[in-house]
Amino acid sequence: MDTKLPVETKAKIYTRTKRILNIAGSLLSTGIIVTILLSGYSVKLEEYSRSIFPGDYGALLIFVLLISLLTGIVSFPLSFYSSYIIEHKYGLSNQTLSAYFRESLKSTLVGAAIGIPVILAFFYILKTFSANWWLIFGTFIFFLSFVLGRIAPVLILPLFYKLIPITDPLLAQSISDISSKAGVNVNGVFTFDMSKNTNKINAAFTGIGKSKRILLGDTLISKFTNEEIMIVFAHEAGHYFHKHILKLTLISAALTFAGLYITSIAYDFLVRYFAFESITSIAALPLLGLLLGAYGFITNPLGNIISRKFEWEADTFALSSTGDSKSFISAMEKLADSNLSEKSPNKVIEFLFHSHPSIDKRIQFAKDFVS
Q1: Cα separation, 183 vs 3, whole angstroms
Q2: Residue 258 to residue 301: CA distance in whole angstroms
Q3: Looking at the domain assignment, is residue 142 inside a domain?
Q4: pTM as predicted
Q5: In which band, very low, low, confident or very high, does the pLDDT at 342 lie, cut at 50, 70 and 90?
Q6: How far apart are the C-alpha atoms of 76 and 39, rounded to whole Å?
Q7: Which residues, listed in sequence order, are joined to residue 215 by a DSSP beta bridge?
Q8: What DSSP string describes 230-275?
Q9: CA separation for the pair 361, 46 (Å, rounded)
Q10: Residue 181 reports pLDDT greater than 80
Q11: CA 306 to CA 320: how far, in whole Å?
């Protein structure tokens, strides 16, 4: 990449390239599933799966494995180019090739450990409660989201990152002061070793109940001043103050129930249209996956609207609790430069794809907040 290009120009090219690759990847995966269905190959895959494991659940797992392998192999070149080549090209990745494959394998294994029980539970519910499967499965997913929210920071995240409590005494005291203002009751504030993989900056408020914690990337700690770090912490504390994780969980649950209900109606119709044996036919399940994917795509802008609203609330809390608009603005500038974020994206693109307000809007908000 031409290092002489202005950062904003690089950011525009980078974000546009990543967006095109992500859309292309989604279209490719969708195209594979559509081809499997329309060609009748889905039925042949089910027959082959049953030749290995005659039972429904064993055949289901073989079927899912075969389709996952097929889509994974076909999609790999595009995925590798987007997540490894492009990130190195723009100087955003520190990851070695071996580390890339190691982390990918780890993600796959963790995904399988969670996904396989979910798939088996779904199929059991579909077979047992065929008329109201959407309601039972939606309830299952709702409770599962709470379980994962509770255990993810404690059991899953440490598989990928080393978490270290904040030790800087001045920073710790400032964090304590903001925590008191926000009524934050979290199980620690930690840095995590983002720098082993990336030069990007990130922070997060995560967890439910006793596993609640605030995470600050070590790249953020190394690049930001203490005042800027406090802005980021205050922003994350704002999410806690406004109970955003709980609200997002409930909103996600509502969208999930609605999506499963709508999908169940469409799935019922299409199973008959394509002459599958029943809704529990393993060969028909890719059709259900397509319907759920389409629902997710359609409702994604709504989720982004809600997310941007919550980000504004967290920004407001950060500015009001610190009174430091100057550090807020400089933190936003560093965030944009380090992550190659487009400061002022097209309004339609922002509406459709962005979960956060644009950097320029957030900077202007900070300026207006002071006045």
Answers
A1: 45
A2: 16
A3: yes
A4: 0.88
A5: very high
A6: 23
A7: 190, 204
A8: HHHHHHHHHHHHTTHHHHHHHHHHHHHHHHHHHHHHHHHHHHHHTT
A9: 51
A10: no
A11: 21
Coil vs helix vs strand at 111: helix
Closest CA to 24 of 92, 75, 68: 75
Average pLDDT over residues 115-119: 96
Q: Among positive and negative, which fits the CA dihedral 288, 289, 292, 298?
A: negative
Identity of the amino acid at 302: L
CB of 57 within 8 A of CB of 123?
yes
DSSP letters for 194-225 = GGGTBS---EEEE-SGGG-EEEEEHHHHHHS-
User: For all residues of the chain together, what is the average pLDDT?
Assistant: 92
Domain containing residue 110: 7-159+259-282
Dig out the tokens for 310 from the structure: 């919550």
Structural domain tally of the chain?
Answer: 1
The answer to whether position 277 is within a domain reads: yes
Q: Spell out where the chain has E strands.
A: 163-165, 189-192, 203-206, 213-217
Nearest Cα to Cα of residue 322 among 178, 215, 223, 180:
178
Q: Is residue 20 part of a domain?
A: yes
Q: Is the dihedral of CA 213, 219, 221, 225 positive or negative?
A: negative
- Under DSSP, the state recorded for 93 is B
* DSSP annotation of 281: -
Dist CA 295 CA 285 (whole Å): 16
Q: Does any domain span residue 72?
A: yes
For 9, the 3-state DSSP assignment is: helix
Q: Which residues pair with 190 in a beta bridge?
A: 165, 215
For residues 214 and 204, the answer to whether their CB atoms sit within 8 Å is yes
pLDDT tens, position by position, 89-98: 999 999 999 9
